[in-house]
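We examine the record.

___
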Amino acid sequence: MEIRYEKPGDISAIHRVNEAAFETGAESDLVDALRDKKAHIISMVAEKENRIIGHILFSPVTLTAEGSEVTLLGLAPMAVLPEYQKQGIGSKLVENGLEESRRKGYPAVVVLGHPDYYPRFGFVLSRKYSITSEYDVPPEVFMIIELQPGILAGKSGIAKYHEAFAEL
C-alpha cells in the first residue's frame, strides 16, 4: 500500500471512497466543494494495487482569538473503503497527513472525531487550550494537536472551518 498526494485522475475514486465510508454523501460533497474552492491544503490517498482505498483531507481552519487570527488545519474527512477498514489504513493516512502538515509549517490541526480514536495520534481535548469549535458539539469530540510544541500557548479562541463546511 502507498500513501501519496491525490492526483487529478483520483477525484472520482476519492468521491466513491467517501460515499462508501459514510452514511450520507455529505463528506464526499464536502471534499468536492473544498477542492472546487481550492481550500484543500493536503489531500492524500491510500492506494493498493492501483485502487484508491482510503482518503484524508486537511483544510484551513481559522483560530480567532482576541482580535488576531491564526491559520490551523482541520482534518476532515478521513475515509477508508468498508472492506479495508480496521486494517490500519486510516491510521497510516492520519500519521502521513500530520507529518505533511508539520512539514508544511502549520502550527496545529483540529479534528471533530471519535474521542477513542484520535488521541492515539497525540490529539487532546481542545478545551485544554480554551479553544472551542464554532459548531455546537460535545467537548469530548473536538480535539487538537500541536505540530510545533508550545505554539498554542496563549492562543485561546474559536476555531472556524472553511465556509464550505457551512454550505452543506
